[in-house]
Amino acid sequence: MKGHIRQRSKGSWSIVIDVGRDAETGKRCQHWHTVKGTKRDAEKRLTELLHSLNRGSYVKPTRLTVAEYLEQWLDGYVATNTAPRTRERYEEIVRLHLIPALGSLLLLALHPQHIQKYYATALESGRRDGKGGLSARTVHKHHRVLYEALKHGVRQGIIVRNVAEAVDPPRPQSKEISMVGPGHVRLLLDAAKPTPYYVAFFTAVYTGLRRGELLGLRWCDIDLDLATLSVIQALQQLRGGQYIFREPKSRRGRRQIALSPSLAILFREHRTKQENDRRLLCRPLVPTDLVFSHPDGRPLRPTSVTRAFRAIAHSLGLEGVRLHDLRHAHATLMLQQGIHPKIVSERLGHSSVAITLDIYSHVLPGLQEAAARRFEEVLQDISVDAPAIGIR
């Protein structure tokens, strides 16, 4: 017999597992587990433990808390296997939310109901400022972080199973994309002309670049003779103010985009202005310099660019329109003009055309109606006397 049950008190049971003899001392080794509930619950847990022992997946009980484990995960795995910005987000979620809610529990005593209760509480009153609950999308992000942390614990043999798999996280609602039509785009660009960000906003509209890709663009990434732009890196700013450059997340994120004639001309004018500004500072413009920067070459602060765009949109009465909506406008206008979704997907740097179709599904109904009309027009134009094509 490799294990047995002892009752400690009413509703509390001790499970004793015999794991063999110590290789050095030769002494018999026993591990103790505590189960709250009925005797049947204890017997079920004993069966599970013996099964895992026979399979070689048994985990020795420890006093490691959820907080201690999550800190180890952050300092070990996350610190060496994630991007700096991702690491900051994980640390914020773990230290400001998961540890305060679940950290005092023993890791091996963490159950799905603990996690499910935390999600319900977070939705109701999870904001740190005490002004209500967190959104379903935010709580779902917490779930993903906890799930990944526990998944790592299973791989490392620290825990037997990932209890987050048995939890149903809140389902986030799909965000409505702000419809920025051609008229609004023109108004925004006209209002931006007096600002230092005009060329950047124009580029965002005509290429669909993300903010980080836009601010990470260098002159060596632009070929004005061939009228192409290559997305090689993105600018990110960490919480402490440090700027870093990161490669695109996916292989398709590293891409080449054809430039429209008007954008190519604007780039030439912008480069000439930058060369003149640098000449005054006795610092020549070099190919690795950023396209969008301060006069002395320092990167633009991403949040400053976002605030400048928001101020322009606000002045035009376009409340809720974000800088990222220029990227959506680029994709939407292209699809509405009949550009193949695969081409649009390549310009946006999506990992697959399915992502493009899912995000911009609001454009598809109109395209389907147009396609149906064109199909009918083709058939109506065919002469009745035209020879039939044999079909097998």
Summarize the structure.
Helices cover about 50% and strands about 10% of the residues. With about 400 residues, the protein is mainly alpha-helical. It has 3 domains: about 5-55, no CATH class; about 65-165, Tyrosine recombinase, N-terminal domain (DNA polymerase, domain 1); about 180-325, hpI Integrase, Chain A.
Q: How would you describe what is shown here?
A:
The protein has 392 residues and is mainly alpha-helical. Strand 1 and strand 2 (12-21) form a beta hairpin. It folds into three domains: 3-55, no CATH class; 66-166, DNA polymerase, domain 1; 182-324, Orthogonal Bundle (hpI Integrase, Chain A), CATH 1.10.443.10. The longest helix has 20 residues, at 136-155. The strands form three sheets. A three-stranded antiparallel sheet has the order 1-2-3, covered by helices on one side. It has 14 helices and eight strands. It is elongated and about 80 Å long. Helix 7 crosses helix 11, helix 11 (325-336) runs antiparallel to helix 12 (341-348) and helix 12 (341-348) packs across helix 13 (353-359). The mean pLDDT is 88.
Strand order in the sheet with the most strands: 1-2-3
Query: So how many helices?
Result: 14
Q: What's the story with the biggest beta sheet? A: 3 strands, antiparallel
Q: Uncertain regions: pLDDT < 50 for 5+ in a row? A: none
* Gyration radius, rounded: 29 Å
Task: Tag the structure with descriptive keywords.
mainly alpha, 14 helices, about 10% strand, DNA polymerase, domain 1, three-stranded antiparallel β-sheet
